[in-house]
Amino acid sequence: MGTSIERHPDAADFGGLPQRCGSEDMSKSLNAVTGWALGTFGVAALASLPFLGNAYLTTIGFTVLIAYILGQSWDWVAGEMGYVNLGHYCFYGIGAYAFAILLVGNWPLWVAIGFAVVVTALAALVISVPLFRLQGDYFAFATLALLPLMEVLAYNLTPITNGADGIVLPVAQVLQPAYLIALGVCVLTFMVTLRINASRFGYALKSIRNDEQVAETVGVRIAPIKRRVLVLSAAFGAVAGAVQAWQMSYIDPATVFGLNVALVPVAMVLFAGSGLRWGPVVGVLVLATLQQWLLVNVKGFQATLYGLIVLLIGRFMPGGFLRARWVKKVPLLRALAREHHEYMGETATVAQTSAASKELPLPRYAAVGSTPLIQLENVRMQFGGNVAVKDVSLQIQSGEIVGLIGPNGSGKTTLFNCISRVYTPTAGRVLFAGQDLKGCSRDQIARLGVGRTYQIPRPFGDLTVQENIAIPLMFNEQPLSPRDAMREARVFIEYAELGHRLRERADGLSVQEKKALEFARALACKPRLLLVDEVASGLTPAEVQRFVDHIRHVRDRYGMTVIWVEHIFSALEKVVDRVIALEEGTLIADGPLAEVVRNERVLSTYLGSAAPKAKAGEHTC
Ligand SMILES: Nc1ncnc2c1ncn2[C@@H]1O[C@H](COP(=O)(O)OP(=O)(O)OP(=O)(O)O)[C@@H](O)[C@H]1O
Q1: ABC transporter domain: which residues (predicted)?
Q2: Is the pLDDT reported for residue 605 higher than 90?
Q3: Confidence band (pLDDT; 50, 70, 90) for 346?
Q4: Minimal CB count within 10 Å: which of 155, 271, 330, 553?
Q5: pLDDT of 1
Q6: Atom 20 of ligand 1 has which residue's CA nearest to it?
Q7: Span between the terminal Cα atoms of the chain, in Å
Q8: Residue 516 and residue 493: Cα distance in Å, rounded?
Q9: Among 380, 386, 390, 418, which residue has the most ligand 1 atoms within 8 Å of its CB, making it the best to mutate?
Q10: How far apart are CA 408 and CA 455, in angstroms?
Q11: What is the mean pLDDT of residues 295-318?
Q12: Where are the domains of the chain?
């Protein structure tokens, strides 16, 4: 199959370059047709294998197909979402047992496969509850425990599983149909992978992989997404287990839950490149073939070899051999090694770099009667003995621009975190347009209309600038399809003057560009309330002025309300209606900047003995 069969979400609407688009569209269509033709031919060729009369080759082919289903379905969770599930093989085992039990009970084949999928999916759903309370290494470690757990259960639930004796299935000589079913499931697995990559679901997974907390604060509901992808991968693992149990006609606990075989599909994907479209295909083809060869020629060493390969790849080629530098020099391998964002570049025209647009696709927000847009009532945030925010009460009206000042550690960012529910306040209430945010999750708050930036920029590093902006647009109150979100993202990107970086990975941007990207991403949340955290620090005066202009513009034009944490008073002075000052978590002043900077407590907090001579506009902290 060619690499161009995926339809890119941003495949149209480049009106400024009609001729170029016409020819590119045509070459895209040609590529797609070639890809589909090659793919169909490849599948037909594979389907003919069991009819060639060589049972040995068919068995190897069958093993490769099963390994691909397992490896690829594992990679939806690990490569796409960044959760390394070392216990994925237990879904294969549960599927194999559920299938075998029904088949022994003389149920039809398809009913038994369906039953295996349902039972395994339910098991995954139950397991997901405790598992997704964990992250990173702890998640991987916990999933590793699933295999011995299931193995012990299979040994001891003798009335159902027949214990150590295993289950003999009432079948014989089903290699040919089992191979064809496995091939069909493989094709489906590949199609699902393409679909995931081009869907909102796929972008949710990628945002979770990059930064779960930020994903939530731009509107992604991460809990159901995590559950769904685990259940999906478990269902495909179950089919692999069922079909292989059918082909082997015998299963026992050690075969379907054994740790030595469990890590084989994982090793295969890691070997070539987790998260790459062709990584699982290449890894499985190379290592499964090698495994078969070893089984015949070097008996007893195959498990050792897989362990060694994982070790060596991890040590010398982290990310898989397809990500090694030398691969870029080999045309075929280079094509197979393309990252997700490179497929995007393949079908999209060059970014339009017109002058920054002043019109953004944002609603115009009206005031909510006399109700303040944001109201804090005795908000307290305590970390052990450290009270970061001490019973702060304040109100901000719709359309106000408010500066939030205070020395380092005074609680400004913590206050933002209490509003956007990164932290749950220890006490007090946060009301947004009169609604208590107490029971709201981070993503709900984002959809209600709270957008924010982070003091240290936190872009989705391995996604492009365009994808970074498109993600909030896909998860807004009125969510856009990936295709429309990618199109709309361009407007925000041009506003942030990042048009020339449209297709580049966000982790390759300069600090200034990352700040501009964060600001644009916060605007793409279409917020009524924009929380801006020290966006101007470390920038040149011209760059600071640009942020000042943007903040004034989004308020004047769209009625957005802004709270701006900033130490550069000369910038605040140009745009804020008033400032609020914090000291050690306590609100010490609230009023026009010129007055607040003359407030004795503020002066002594900021300037110590030099305080009385200070004037507004002269200070930076
Ligand atoms: N997750 C946390 N765990 C423990 N303490 C925390 C946590 N987050 C913030 N703090 C503490 O809360 C206090 C306020 O920190 P915060 O980052 O809100 O200050 P700030 O005013 O934003 O400072 P800066 O201007 O340096 O960003 C500090 O003492 C900090 O150490």
Answers
A1: 374-609
A2: no
A3: very low
A4: 330
A5: 35
A6: 409
A7: 59
A8: 9
A9: 386
A10: 12
A11: 74
A12: 1-52, 58-259, 263-350, 370-449+527-621, 457-523
Q: How far apart are CA 143 and CA 233, in angstroms?
A: 14
- CA-based nearest residue to 620, from 577, 566, 562, 583: 566
The answer, yes or no, to whether residue 12 has pLDDT greater than 50, is no
CA distance 77 to 233: 7
For ligand 1, say whether the CB of 501 is within 6 Å of any of its atoms: no
Tell me which of 3.30.390.50, 3.30.160.100, 3.30.70.120, 3.40.50.300 is the CATH number of domain 370-449+527-621. 3.40.50.300
On whether the CB atoms of residues 528 and 373 are closer than 8 A, the answer is: yes
Global ipTM: 0.96
Give the ligand 1 atom nearest the CA of 582.
21
The atom of ligand 1 lying closest to the CA of 423 is: 1
The pLDDT tens digits of the residues spanning 480-501 come to: 999 999 999 999 999 999 999 9
pLDDT for 225-262, tens place per residue? 999 999 999 999 999 999 999 999 999 999 999 887 78
Q: Say how far apart CA 336 and CA 324 lie, in whole Å.
A: 12
Q: 368 pLDDT band (50/70/90 cuts)?
A: low
Both tokens of residue 413? 């960012």
Q: How far is the CA of 581 from the centre of ligand 1 (A)?
A: 15
CB 293 within 8 A of CB 63: no
Element (H, E) at 394: strand 386-396
User: What pLDDT, on a 0 to 100 scale, did the predictor assign at position 312?
Assistant: 81
Q: How far apart are CA 342 and CA 279, in angstroms?
A: 14
User: What totals of helices (H) and strands (E) does the chain contain, helices first?
Assistant: 27, 12
Residue 463 CB–ligand 1 contact under 6 Å:
no
Is 120:235 a contact under the CB 8 Å cutoff? yes
Residue identified by tokens 């709900």 is 444
> How much distance in Å is there from the Cα of 60 to the middle of ligand 1?
58
Strands 435-436, 401-405: pairing kind? unpaired
518 neighbors 539 (Cβ within 8 angstroms):
no
Please state whether beta strands 561-565 and 435-436 pair in parallel, antiparallel, or not at all (unpaired).
unpaired
Query: Atom 30 (ligand 1): residue with closest C-alpha?
Result: 409
What DSSP string describes 507-544? GGS-HHHHHHHHHHHHHHT--SEEEEESTTTT--HHHH
Q: Which residues is 162 bridged to in the sheet?
A: none
Which atom of ligand 1 approaches the CA of 417 most closely?
A: 18
Closest CA to 98 of 167, 19, 22: 167
* pLDDT interval class at 306 (50, 70, 90): low
What whole-number distance in Å separates Cα of residue 368 and Cα of residue 397? 9
- Across-strand partners of 387? 382
**What is residue 620's DSSP assignment?**
B
Ligand 1 centroid to Cα of residue 386, in Å, is 9
